[in-house]
């Protein structure tokens, strides 16, 4: 089993499990998460979302970002200056659309999250630009 520094199981999903989870997604979510789509800015569920809590991968529920790391980038997409654990993110070079960008994916299920840019606020200087459709949110006051 592969475990991240913060103690989460990073063992990749099997194809069967990934398909089973993807079956419960909407067509829009499938487009973004499985086909590297991008939702329209200022339309997502979370770009202007202020509540304290944790943002998880929509497909496999791995925790990815804390609300405390969220900031208003003005881009119209939810933006974070750091992930919960750098091990939870996979980074890929993306040369689509005539640009060189860094795509970010969930380390466990390989679901597309968005891109990361080097124009974020201090101290990290990073801007993790997310699709709301790639995330699910669990508020802090949730009791299990
Ligand atoms: Zn995932």
From TrEMBL:
Key words of the record: Metal-binding, Oxidoreductase, Zinc
SUPFAM superfamilies, sorted: Mss4-like
MF terms in GO: peptide-methionine (R)-S-oxide reductase activity
Signal peptide: none
Reactions that this protein is recorded to catalyse: L-methionyl-[protein] + [thioredoxin]-disulfide + H2O = L-methionyl-(R)-S-oxide-[protein] + [thioredoxin]-dithiol
EC number(s) recorded for this UniProt protein: 1.8.4.12
Keyword DNA damage appears in the UniProt entry: no
Pfam families per the UniProt record, alphabetical: SelR
Domain (MsrB) ranges: 18-140
Cofactor binding note from Swiss-Prot or TrEMBL: Binds 1 zinc ion per subunit. The zinc ion is important for the structural integrity of the protein.
InterPro entries in alphabetical order: Met_Sox_Rdtase_MsrB, Met_Sox_Rdtase_MsrB_dom, Mss4-like_sf
Main enzyme class: oxidoreductase
Keyword S-adenosyl-L-methionine attributed: no
Active-site residues, record numbering mapped to chain: 129 (nucleophile)
Co-factor(s): Zn(2+)
Binding residue positions for Zn(2+): 57, 60, 106, 109
PANTHER family: METHIONINE SULFOXIDE REDUCTASE (PTHR10173), METHIONINE-R-SULFOXIDE REDUCTASE B1 (PTHR10173:SF52)
Cited NCBIfam families: peptide-methionine (R)-S-oxide reductase MsrB
Family listed: Belongs to the MsrB Met sulfoxide reductase family.
Protein name: Peptide methionine sulfoxide reductase MsrB
Gene from which the chain derives: msrB
């Amino acid at each position: 089993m592969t475990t991240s520094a913060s103690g989460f199981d990073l063992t990749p999903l099997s194809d069967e499990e990934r398909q089973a989870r993807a079956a419960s997604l909407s067509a829009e979510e499938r487009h973004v998460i499985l086909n590297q789509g991008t939702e329209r800015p200022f339309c997502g569920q979370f770009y202007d979302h202020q509540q304290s809590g944790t943002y998880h991968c929509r497909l496999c529920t791995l925790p990815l970002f804390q609300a405390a790391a969220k900031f208003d980038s003005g881009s119209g997409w939810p933006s974070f200056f750091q992930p919960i654990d750098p091990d939870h993110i996979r980074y890929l070079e993306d040369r689509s659309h005539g640009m060189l960008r860094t795509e970010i994916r969930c380390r466990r299920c390989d679901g597309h999250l968005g891109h990361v840019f080097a124009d974020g606020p201090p101290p990290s200087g990073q801007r993790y630009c997310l699709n709301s459709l790639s995330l699910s949110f669990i508020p802090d006051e949730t009791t299990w």
